[in-house]
Design a protein that fits this description.
This protein is of the alpha+beta class. It has helices at 2-20, 35-41, 121-138, and strands at 42-55, 62-74, 81-87, 103-109, 117-119. It has a five-stranded antiparallel beta sheet.
Length: 149
């Protein structure tokens, strides 16, 4: 039992170290994928200011987020104002609700029905840096089947 517990602790420490150093380990919002897989599996990754949020017409549990983009990550370029239809992260945790006026990074998964990654403040900076580092490698990675549409 002690050997199993020691192995589990060692694996957890190694995984934490890999993530902390930005070494392509799991990113925070990616459901266990490597950072390049997370980028490859996302359709849109954009930083901006939330102009408005509304319930998606006819789509329960989803919201329409209109964002004034300040930085496009994936794709590399996009419209100045974009509206994204995403699963509402605030439906399961009110602290994660997207609200007008917030400055955030939103990562829209390619798989329908999966919550987007939404990052604010220091989390935004950390995840933006992780995404930038992973962009080149993501071009060479296929999205693994559990996360495909």
């Amino acid at each position: 039992m002690t050997r199993i517990r020691s192995a589990a602790v060692g694996m957890a420490v190694a995984a934490s170290a890999l993530v902390a150093c930005g070494g392509g380990g799991p990113a925070r919002g990616d459901r266990g994928q490597s950072a390049p897989e997370w980028v490859a599996c996302s359709t849109t990754m954009v930083v901006g200011d939330v102009a408005s949020v509304a319930a998606s017409p006819g789509r329960k549990g989803r919201i329409s987020v209109t964002l004034d983009a300040t930085q496009w990550l994936k794709p590399a370029r996009g419209q100045r104002r974009v509206t994204l239809d995403v699963v509402d992260p605030g439906a399961t945790d009110a602290r994660r609700a997207v609200k007008a006026g917030q400055h955030l990074l939103i990562a829209v998964p390619g798989r329908d029905g999966v919550e987007p990654g939404v990052f604010r403040g220091e989390g935004l900076r950390l995840e933006r840096d992780r995404i930038k580092k992973a962009l080149h490698a993501a071009d060479k990675v296929n999205c693994p089947s559990p996360w495909k549409s």
